[in-house]
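Archive record:
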Amino acid sequence: MKTDLLRHLWILLSLVGVVSCAQTHRTITQEEREVADSLVMSIRDLDSLIHQQKVWEEQGDLLESVTALRQLGKRYREEGDFAMALEAHNRGLDQAEELQDTLSIVRALNDMGTDYRRMDLLAPAAEFHTKALRLCEQQRDTTYMTRKNRVISLNGLANVYLAIGNLERADSVLRMALAGEQELGSPLGQAINYANIGSIFEQQGAIDSAWYYYQQSMAYNRQAASDLGVGLCHTYYGSLYERQGAYDKAIAEYTRSYEIMSRTGDDWHMLNALLALANVYQTTGHTDQALELLKEAQTRAEQLQSLSHLSNIYRIYYDCYQQSGDYRRALECYVHSSDLSDSIVDMKKINNIQNISLNVERARNEQNMAKQEQVLAQERKTKLIGYSIAGILLLLALGGVLLGGYITRLRAKTYHQLKSLSKMREEFFTNITHEFRTPLTVINGLSREIAEDVNNSTELRTQAQVINRQGNTLLSLINQLLDIAKVKSAVGNEDYRHGNILAYIQMSVEVYQQFAAQKEISLENNVSGTWHTDFIPNYIDKVLGNLISNAIKYTPEGGNIVVSASQQESDTLLLSVSDSGIGIAEEDKARLFDPFFQIDSKYAVGSGIGLALVRQIVSSLGGSIKVDSELGSGSTFTISLPLQKIGQVAPPLMTEDQPIAPPQDIFSESIDNYPSDAPSTIADAKRILIIEDHGDVARYIGSQLSDSYQLYYASDGQSGLTKAQELIPDVIITDLMMPGLDGYQVCQGIRSHELTNHIPIIIVTAKVTESDRIQGFAAGADAYLTKPFHSEELQAVVVQLIKQRKLLYNKYAQQDNASAPTLPAEAPISESEQAIESANTMFLHKVVDVVYLLIASRSKTDVATVATKLFMSESQLYRKLSAITDLSPAAYIQGIKLSRAKQLIDKSPQMTLTEVSEVSGFADYSGFVRAFKKLYGVTPSVYKRSGLTDEESQSA
């Protein structure tokens, strides 16, 4: 039994050894690679290299064959034969995979990515460079070639981002690649990255920065003795001179570049210099020289099959022929250029679609790989169990050690996978947010053009300005989202500058003085002194901008804000922003810096992005931020930020590094923007009071009602209540979130005041929950509309509420000859209607009591006296009675006196009509007779003789 067990263990161990041996493969040394490179580079003739590659492939010398295929593809690419280049590099990739040589696989992937980039096929180019980068990052060794391949992959990705116009992403990747080249000590690699970063600054209009990076590139190209790089730098110099209008210097630089490129045999880059030179000649009026250069360029571009170059060639042709007056040929060239441009754009759209598909496919492949790795892990575990059985107690202990190591590796792998997944999520978030900027750019551009066109009507230009302001608000929020994603990203180096940071902070605070003054807030700048250090101006702008703008938002008028900054020990910056605002509740402090968290405040509604961005920036720089606050006592944000010299010399502060203006979404509303009252020219038009703190929203609501109503505006709840009591409007439209009194308090104030309790109220707000609606109706609102709303819905609600009020005062008008009020017979429409009707009835009884008291005291019963007794103005009494009864005060008072006279005739027949007239408050008997006959259809004497009842007199 024991013998059989030992025999089985021996067989198991033998099988494990065989499997382990079968899974190993030979590692290629650096010396072998250098020998292969030397053999390939010694073959100058293309046909000889093709023949020798086939020989190596047939003999099974895969390393030499892969090296030869890589060199063949490069030569084909330089000659513009991209199809052959792709074929060679693809075959090299297959053989590298067969050889299981990771370095060769990475180089083949990068070569294929470059091939696709030269063909303007950006989607597959990005895919191959991304695969190469991931393989480099999975490599555990830190040899020169592994690090070099990683930098080449980063360069390829950066060129893709440059091609699609994603300058921020390109800048981050290029700076990461530059750091890698600096670690490797590669002059040529540094030259390439400095040039690419310089091109980003040139596209952004930062000419001084572009000169700095191009000059750095030229220095490293000369150090590397790279004719191609030197020629490209002359092209860059020419471009900058051309931007500055120094055309003679630009021509000299382009000519020098063209001469150097001609010697290198690189047709692709030579075309760029040739086109740049032709463009300058056309611009300076030297049409003949330009046309001669364009003919040569066209021939080379057609050989390369480069659509982008051909599009530029026909564009310059168009400019030349138009300049010389040959409009027919100019039109033909314009059409050619447009067609080629459209083709390129369509290709870019296809590339974007392919990008999305590739991302999805990549995620699916990663999931499959994870499953396979789990299967392999299970197999390793099985092997460990076999070893533990064979080695009894000793192997069991060893198995425990191995198992522990396996678990550690598995955890590390899981961590890296989660980190990669987080990176992919952030990249997706950045890309999708970036896509929002394209339609916003169109919206803002068109609205700005409409607003600036003096031929458009004033109303149209005003509406265009509103659209532009709101578009800028949304663009500012998107920019902050992009900032969060960029700061979170592991790719990219911060853009440090060297200068006086305290002076920079002081200038940044001064930018906000004007906006604080608009809200009558004191902004105290307690920053002074000198401290020259390395810092990131863009980060300082964003941190200060968000903290100060929040302080202005949540500090009421008459408050104060204090900004302080000082240098502490160990080169630490201590920055604080204090305000006397509304403060922060204790339960909100824990989540204050979470993305999209918003405190419940009636002073302002934020996006929940700014403070999250501040914490992200501070954390990325190794600092800390804390808040001290109590409700009603203001808040103090304190930032501690360690500042130190960076590894390399930071460029000095430049002109373009001045503090940026505050985001437009924070201070877009001002007093000048708020609409003014607009009485209607229509006779007897109903009055509508709009209470809304956002000027653009108030203006939009008013524009939907201006044709039919008189419009009045109030920018906050308190002024809205005051204006409502002065105007007695027919309808009130109010927002909920406002400084001072909120919309709920406005509704309660309207309903509790005798002058305004009859007025219908419409709430228009962005708060959409059911509890908000219930609270609005409980406060006394008649309708509740959520933003965004349809203008037709708002107009219909206004019309219906006015009709309902019309039905109510018709009930009052149907009383006994418009006399003293009695409650209507019909039941109220709703609880809200019942409450309003009860309040109106009480008011009318009060009017009757005042008139009766004046009659009893033989005082005047004119409108002015009655209004004074009711503690109202004549206009307020007129608006109130008209809204309730549809009668003027004079007519209503006369109705009360006539009702009194009729009661006296019925109940006191012994009184003479003259006595009845006097007791009823009429000073003139003839006037009493006329008024009585007009209302009841008979004279008082006829009524008294006939003894008619109330119903009979009404029918008469």
The first helix runs from residue 2 to 23. Residues 1-25, 815-830, 949-956 have pLDDT under 50 and may be disordered.
